[in-house]
Design a protein that fits this description.
Radius of gyration: 23 Å
Number of strands: 9
Distance between the termini: 45 Å
Number of helices: 1
Number of domains: 1
């Protein structure tokens, strides 16, 4: 890691770690994601967006086929590695696995908001949970007598589809 050294306006010296950038000089920024107006944690999160075209094929009297586009739906694949169950244990203090689990159990339509950059207005989608999968990876103990557990860590994968 590169280190910058210098003097401050106040007396004293110090070092600052240099911000890592990509080859073109930009800094990677996580997209802001909200489910039902609550910010989801960026704790080892990956987001993939896929576009699905919904269409009907109709055979005309002439024998030709015609395709009519009915709509364009988006699918959002979210995954987290080592996601804590408690909000207080995520790296940014945002909602973690317990909140996601409660949304899946309700089986309702959800409002999913994505903001690409801090200055972007963002966009809201009405979605439903198409699939949800979690694997318990680690349990941390509060005490050594195995009577109570602390934080649980999960690998979580979730697919949201626009309704």
């Amino acid at each position: 890691m590169a280190v910058l050294t210098g003097y401050a306006a106040l007396s004293g010296t110090g070092t600052l770690p240099k911000i890592r950038t990509s080859h073109d000089g930009t800094v990677q920024v996580y997209r802001l994601c909200k489910l039902n107006n609550r910010i989801l944690t960026a704790h080892n999160r990956k987001l993939d967006i896929a576009v699905e075209y919904v269409y009907d094929d109709v055979q005309l009297l002439s024998g030709n086929m015609r395709r009519f586009l009915r709509g364009v739906k988006q699918s959002f694949s979210l995954s987290w590695q080592y996601l804590p169950n408690r909000t207080s244990m995520t790296v940014d203090g945002q909602y973690g696995r317990d909140y996601l689990q409660s949304l899946v159990e309700n089986r309702e339509l959800l409002e999913f908001f994505i903001q690409d950059t801090p200055n972007d207005a963002g966009k809201t989608y009405t979605v439903y949970v198409e699939s949800y999968n979690e694997d318990l990876v680690r349990r941390e103990l509060i005490n050594q007598t195995l009577t109570s557990y602390g934080t649980h860590f999960y690998h979580v994968a979730m697919v949201l589809r626009e309704s």
